[in-house]
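pasting input
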Amino acid sequence: MLTIGVDVGGTFTDFVVFDKVTNSLSTRKVPSTPRDPAQAVLTGVELVLGDGVSPGQINSFLHGSTITTNALLQRRGAKTGLFLTRGLKGIFQVQSQMTSGPAYSTTKQRPPALIDELDVFEISERIDRDGRTIRDLDESDVSRAAQEIVARGIESLAICYVFAFANKAHEQRTMDILRDAAPNCRVFCSSDILPRIREWSRMSTTILDAYLEPVLVDYVANLATGLRSLGVATNKTYLMASNGGVMPFNALTLGGKAVHTLLSGPAAAVQAAKRLAESRGVDNLVTMDIGGTSCDVAFVRDGAALEVTSGAVAGYEVFVPMLDIATIGAGGGTIARADADGRLQVGPESAGADPGPAAYGRGGREATITDADLVLGYLNPDYFLGGALALDAEMAREAISRNIAVPLGLDLEEAAISAVRINDVHMAEAVRAVAAKAGVSLAECHLVACGGAGPVHAASIADELGIPEVLVPRSPGVFAALGLLCTDIAEDYVQTDIGLLEDLDSETITSQFNILERKAISEYAAQGFHANQVIFIREVDARYPGQGFEIRVAVDNPQDPETTTLIAKKFHSRHREIYGHCSEEESVEIVSYRIRATIAMPQYQPSSVSPHAALDHSRDAERLVYFEAASGFVPARIYRRASLDLSDFIEGPAIVEQEDTTTVIPPGWIAAMDEFATLVMKKK
Amino acid sequence: MRPDAMTTEIVRTKLETLGEEMLYLLYRSAYSTLMRETRDCSYRMTTPTGALVTDGAVNYQFAVENLLNLHNFGENDIWIANHPYQIGVQHTPDLMVIVPVYSNGIHVAFSCATAHKSDSGGALVGSVSMLSTEIYQEGLLLPLMKLGESHEGGYDLDDRIIRMISANVRDPDLYIGDMRAQIGVTLVAKKRIQALAESVGVETLLGVYEEILDHGERKMRRHLRQWRDGEVTVESFLDSDGITRDQPVRYELTVRKIGDSITLDFSGSDDQTAGPVNMLPPYMEGFSVYPSLLAMTDPSALFNSGMRRPVSVITREGSVLNPRLPAPVGATTTVAYRTTDLVLEALGYFAPERAAANGGGAGGSTALLWKTPLGAKGSRAMQYEVLATAQGATNVSDGCSGTGALFYNNPTTPIEILELQFPVRIERFELIRDSGGPGEHRGGLSYRREYRCLAPAMLNRRADRGKFPGKGVHGGKPGSVAKLFLNPGTEKEQRVAIAGRYEFLAGESFMGEGAGGGGYGDPFLRAPEAVARDVALGYVSRDSAEHDYGVIIDENGQLLPEATERRRQEGRTQASA
């Protein structure tokens, strides 16, 4: 019985194959195929099957994909239209009224609209705040617009009327008319996708879903067909969601799910970090996944990954629960150069993967962090990506000399270490700012470093942040794929219904949750799950009346007669926790009800490795590596990760090399492998 | 010895993050909803002489310099002030906390935070209004005063000052609560700066300041050298000062640029006014001069005081941009749009490719006082919204529609939230056809919002550009002016002055329209297809397409290329004749 986890990255598609019975794990990397990501996925599965695995042994298939994120970035979604309430086209045109870009710029714009405004139709109707119809739906408006939809070749349609969360009748009726009048157009109602107050939030989320869902559904359908043609017949196929849970493939066709997949990739890595923390009995983590152009940062607090209820992906606002993952524009490809006024400017520009660092020899002339890492001896030119990409140290030296050392009058090594140190401080300070925003105390955190460039710089960053311990997972390069095996099925549901807590009781609150729970159970039933498998987490969004934002408060047992008192108590104390004060005599207003419906999945538990006879490291190399603390090059021992043993004790300066990353252990740091094969670095 | 490039960048990064982090801390620890939601607050550290090294508005420098000039202070002091004439804040609700920072007895920095208070006392709720004629009506004035001292584990405040403030403001708990949040944040930052000074050394820290300031100066001079030399004078008007309704207020700027330095002379502006549209020089510099200089040179750069070295700003005492006491300064938000337009317009002469047309100015505020609040679901008596207008066009693109002009960037209140909390219905919300100034790049369109009052109410509206539209540039035409209609679409429809007080019965309505952004370049050069699309979207009327753009569109929305060519030819002949 095997479980396969597949994570699609920009460069590689990563596979982990987990055997539940023997608790063994194997990994594999296949070059990604960005034009048709499914191709690399299927190629990899074929390779796994070539290893003597029979298709029937594959019991479940879990997938992390950037399909919707990339479709959004490249604007390759469906041709989408929008229906909105007549007279209120400004909701679409003005959006939140905000623009993006530097504060002092005369050329600020919104991100390009996903819908051509010519495909936006005003429909006469109006619901008021209490859900009462104050203007009937004009069905002739709908019919006329339907003809336009067909004529204009619109493939997908979002309907978002004001106060539809309070009364969905007009949206539903519109959808019914369209079913006959425009049968080939997929239709999405805001009252289904996000029945929550705030019209632009709801509209933006519904548009994103309508725009991306056809892409997602087609992708998953193709993938499922491909898997079946390889003989993989299991219907336990799942896609990673932004909330850190997974969704069954067949749930995706129900509608409204695409918008929950925008962080499918990075969310999986956070789950892996969480599991790593559990295995070591650690509660608080900061994870840094440093790649070529950017660094994803997330937090685990008290054992739970931090979440937000809205976010922006590629500048588009989406209002669904997602892990709180911040992206910092710094990585191995970050460019360093002396600016025109004599300042050493590091980032935010990046050489990306193409042409990439000068050392890649692909025509890049900019000096990058990777070039500096090479000059300083952190990277082994013959063992980058396990030797798959030979680095040209001469090109790296030239670029650093030309762009930094000569204009600033520095030695080559000084120039290189300056670039690296500045970049490390940039990342550390960015983490500090993100932590401040999320209200996380870094002093209590351990740092998990992954991604190709993470473990190279982790110790230096940890030093900056005052974090005494760094964890480098066994396979930092397939960390996200591993994370897929560390999660449950989880779906979020929300419904706005505003009322003062003092006017509610356990009965009314229970019935609100019941509506959402019934919806979840019926959706799960369609996927073959039984009601008694579903575990509910219940929350309300609450605030003091008049406040413009809400706080999520857990509701442990809505049937408890004391539930309203408990909610109020929790709300006040959470308010105090976040904002430093609360007002216990004030009323509390409930704005929305939320549930997360989860179904437990069999999960990967890291097994302890058994000590093998201590290897003789004397054959391992030694090379000169530059450290700021040493003010120059010093000899450092070079270890291969695969040959490390539980009994090994590494004292910096040292370097641990493996195919997917390089771990730099500076002077003053020590490292050892724990029983789960995690490399643990500590400050002496 | 000057610190090396690496040390400079590392310290610079840490100081920049400190500012960002303290701002989050300020939001989170703020007591009032106003401060948390509108985020009308800021944190800055300065050098021991008041120079800003990590962005920020010039008024902080002015405030610290005044503290240094006027007072002696101790290592652990906590100072406060809100007096615009003394610390250059925009208006009286902005309270500033200033804390000196010492490391081993050496003065290394000031740590400062400003936050807008919901009320600072005075004639009207909120303290600022278009009605004040003396700053004394705009609330309690706090000159630079020592409020208390910090010590290990906390601070002590002078209870007499706290009691005096509490006796003068309308919501003392909110005021004092937010002030304590400001004090807390400046003290957290103080410790952080001390730790930084300790780790890199005081000499190095002070050396880094100089490096940053010198770099800012070099950068500004390099950009100025690239501009042509010369002199230009521009003017701009505000509808009125709010008191003398029919009298526009004139702002004038002459810019002289020679080599790598530049002078901005505002002396020609009108004398100070009775109404609160006077602005103090430090605020004007911080809000209009340097942001505009950065926008015209390097928008990605952060301001620092070194950039002031090649720049001189001249204002005339007793004028509207350098008033004498007791001139009121409360309503300067609108003025800030005007002075920024003025600076951008003048700088456009020196850097024509970066010139920007005027934006639509302040969208103004719409305050509705409900006489019979519904009482249900958290409704309040006072509904308050700040609306946006549009951006002017640039050589890069059309101006952005329905957004804050210039450097303003605030969200709108959702319709569903308004209707939930107040007895109001938003009947219309849409971009206004022909509001964007015609041009090769069109000015941004402003929006209209129609409010139906479901209960009796009084409207108090402040607005801008009712008489003076946003200008175009390089042949672009002006945007539309702002308008206000009572009972639109009914027999009682009436166009009225955009600013003022109006009463409504239940069922009556009003509609506000913001001013549009100006256009960039000759509208006859705009691609006919782009004009046809604007017509199809309802952004431009067929009439305007023909008269302003020389583009002929038939009644089915079809572009007529030959007729267009002829029309444009005629237009050019007329223009050259």
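fyi Chain A has a mean pLDDT of 91.
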